[in-house]
Amino acid sequence: MKYSMMTVGPVQENTYILYNEKKEALIIDPGAEGKRINKKIEALELKPLAILLTHAHFDHIGAVDDVREKWGIPVYIHENEESWLQDIKRNGSSFFHQHIQAKPAEKIIRKEEKLVIGGFSIDVFETPGHSPGSVSYYFRGENIVFSGDALFSGSIGRTDLYGGSQRILLESIHSRLMTLPEETVVASGHGPVTTIGDEMDSNPFLTGF
């Protein structure tokens, strides 16, 4: 599996396009600039299968409908944020004086599970705290986890938005992410990629937990 990271929108959100040797693709968190994302998919000559959302904050969903409608693919989201795609208060866009919505998701994640989509096998971890329905997608064979806004390089997600809790977030990180192999790559919703081992050693929010 390979992936391409695109930094999009005014708050520099990371959208990920994952693809395998069959050219099957998954899109994680298409946050903005839908036309640019679709052009990248076309340039790579990929066949998208699904959109996976780590959570439903506005900066992660702004291009969902553009990408979904272009390729005719389903959207996956956790049940705790199923309604947030249409709710501008809960998805945070009204807080930033924007009006960002997306149509309802086709696939609802109700528990931690293994998803098999085409040639991809994905472990879904519930990692709430940044928001109630935050999830991380772990690709065990490739040793990479897409953590959304739970864990960043040298930081953790903010918890001052609707439904956030720093206590719950820290518990999620330690029980679901810090238990992964230290060499696991962490591809976050903002900023550079990191590894579990680097965050264990130097993340100031985690070392004293």
TrEMBL record:
Gene3D superfamilies in UniProt: Ribonuclease Z/Hydroxyacylglutathione hydrolase-like (3.60.15.10)
InterPro entries (UniProt xref): MBL_Glyoxalase_II, Metallo-B-lactamas, RibonucZ/Hydroxyglut_hydro
Keywords: Hydrolase, Metal-binding, Zinc
Cofactor list: Zn(2+)
Residue ranges occupied by any Metallo-beta-lactamase domain in the UniProt entry: 12-190
Listed GO MF terms: hydrolase activity; metal ion binding
SMART domains reported in the protein's UniProt record: Lactamase_B (SM00849)
Pfam families found in the cross-reference section: Lactamase_B
Protein name: Metallo-beta-lactamase domain-containing protein
